[in-house]
Model the fold of this input.
Amino acid sequence: MQVRLLLCFLACCLIGNASASDQDSGHTLYLVRHAEKQSDGSHDPALNDAGKKRSMQLAILLQDKDIKTIWSSDFKRTRETAKPLLSSLVLQLNIYDPRNQADLVENLLENQQNTLIVGHSNTIPELARLICDCLIADMNESEYDRMIVISIIDGEVELKTLQQDHWLNVGG
Done:
């Protein structure tokens, strides 16, 4: 009888340890505004040459960050910013509605995966505020080189704000 109890106890311990190790202890969210866009006066412009170069640099930076999910608003400039990384990681693009960021935040916090989110100057800072309940400066219309990095490890939030010349120093 004692052996049976001991075996049950050990089995419960093993199951508990397996469940605990299956849970993600940390993940990192990379939030960027889309890269430079063409000035063609349209509502949905594509990236210009500088923007295409910046999106390639972003892909190079994030290719070894174990990105599992990429989110973008449904505009050419945001989709094109994400495209080089999508191609190199062979991932599908997830589209979110920037007018309903609460749903995206819920998804990001629930899924706990390293993720790139591409948005706009008027949505990325607010998205970061919603995720980490922290102070984030607004972006101006000419700012394309800021990356907000939010790491959530064992429930603790670490925030980094980087300019492009420091992107190569990103951990996570």
